[in-house]
Design brief:
This protein is α/β, with parallel strands linked by helices. Helices cover about 30% and strands about 30% of the residues.
Length: about 450
């Protein structure tokens, strides 16, 4: 039975300070020589990378809509086992996102919430905000509050007095308004953990502020959940095929649970860098994830031996799945708004153009329109889309494999472009609800190896 202390760190809204407090708590508990198991509620890629940077442990996405409740719970139990504390960073405000919100996740997993509240423009009114969060959804427990941007001792006392009078939640600490801490950002969000955006000095300062102003011992006391039966370990069979996975600063957006599912289905994953390596590893299939190819377009374009290697792999008819940034890599190239163009693989006869404004954001449900390496016609997959680039008009003769539906809206478009043995598109897929699709992809890779 697992009794790892665990909680969801939720925010009142985006920008409330969740990520700063999450990283600070992870760093502070790690400085106590505690093993911290990090998680992220929702589909985000960047925060899990920062969690890994701080804790040294892989952070998992817990998304009830994409991955399903059973898979998400098993992933949480499996990956928090043996840790001294598990911290789940929430998404947006506590109740934002419906089924994928941190409020619903905490209720489904019977975990307490610690609420991060930015009080820079309020004092006693903070109690009204906290009271609302305590009472909005049955089964959601706001155990404690961490106040962000406290201006003075007087400010802190005004907030505490009001909360103690009107709320059940306990004030667990605060961060001062004068604290200078920020994480560099760009168009898709913060810099990634792979880019080491925080210096050791900045991280140490953050941990010290948390240790000074937040009651870590009380958090451990309050956040011991009821015992849960341990989740079954995913099998790790002898590999039956090899899948090359592009993974570097340009291609760093992957759901770690997808890797676990691929390994459990018989894949050996061979990671390589399209920026640094001269050719892709010998493999039976290729997985090109998302990331920031536009930031490294020149380096990718100038690595002629890698481009030639991947073109030869595609020409051999091997299975290739490319999502978002990986899909951009397979186009004729990336064109910046100022007119610069970086030629790339050229498998899909379109160009990807970067824009200042976001092109698309949100959950997507895909239904296959024909048999593919994900399964028979009618296979349903779930994922998320977030990008600033657009492609030029895809020729009509290129097959559209997916019907794309947006939850609550209905059919949006046809996407998932298939040319030969390659499927590419802007969707980041999570296979938690679709293990059969993983098994089918592995079967296609095995068949490819036998050719």
């Amino acid at each position: 039975m697992t009794v790892t202390p665990a909680f969801v760190l939720s925010g009142v809204s985006s920008g409330s300070g969740k990520t700063t407090v999450s990283l600070g708590l992870m760093a502070a508990f790690s400085r106590r020589s505690l093993q911290v198991a990090p998680f992220k509620c929702g589909p985000d890629f960047i925060d899990p990378g920062l969690h890994h940077f701080v804790t040294g442990r892989i952070s998992r996405n817990l998304d009830l809509w994409m991955g399903g409740e059973t898979f998400s719970r098993d992933s949480f139990l499996r990956n928090s086992a043996g840790a001294d504390i598990a911290i789940i960073e929430g998404v947006m405000g506590m109740f934002d996102g419906g089924l994928s919100s941190s409020g619903v996740l905490s209720r489904k997993f019977a975990l307490p919430n610690i609420l991060v509240l930015d009080v820079r423009s309020m004092s006693e009114s903070a109690a009204a905000v906290i009271k609302g969060f305590e009472t909005l959804m049955a089964g959601v427990t706001v155990t404690g509050v961490i106040l962000n941007r406290i201006a003075s001792e007087r400010h802190l006392q005004l907030v505490k007095n009001a909360v103690e009078e009107h709320c059940n939640a306990e004030i667990l600490g605060y961060l001062p308004r004068t604290m200078e801490f920020s994480i560099p950002s760009r168009h898709l969000g913060l810099l990634t953990g792979d880019e080491a955006p925080l210096s050791p000095e900045a991280l140490q300062l953050l941990a010290e502020k948390i240790e000074k102003h937040v009651n870590l011992d009380r958090i451990l006391e309050l956040c011991s959940p009821a015992a849960h039966p341990p989740a079954a370990l995913l099998p790790v069979p002898a590999p039956t095929c090899r899948i090359a996975v592009a993974r570097d600063k340009a291609f760093c957006f992957y759901y770690e649970d997808n890797f676990d599912l691929l390994r459990a289905a018989g894949a050996e994953l061979l990671f390589f860098s399209p920026i640094e390596d001269t050719e892709m590893p010998a493999a039976d299939a290729l997985y090109l994830g998302g990331g920031y190819p536009e930031l490294y377009a020149d380096a990718l374009s100038e690595n002629h031996s890698m481009l030639s290697s991947i073109r030869s792999f595609i020409a051999a008819g091997r299975p290739v799945f490319a999502e978002c940034g990986g899909f951009m890599y397979l186009t004729e190239g990336i064109e910046e708004e100022e007119g610069r163009f970086a030629p790339l693989i050229g498998h899909f006869p379109v160009r990807a153009t970067m824009n200042q404004r976001r092109a698309s954001l949100g959950y997507r449900e895909l239904t296959t329109r024909a048999e593919s390496f994900f399964g028979p016609e009618g296979t349903v997959l779930r994922g998320h889309e977030f990008h600033y680039s657009k492609i030029s008009a895809m020729p009509d003769e290129i097959e559209r494999l997916f019907t794309v539906n947006k939850p609550g809206v209905g059919e949006l478009a046809s996407e998932g472009y298939r040319k030969g043995s390659v499927v590419g598109g802007y969707m980041h897929l999570h296979f938690g609800r679709a293990p059969a699709a993983v098994e089918k992809f592995i079967a296609e890779a095995v068949h490819s190896s036998e050719k």
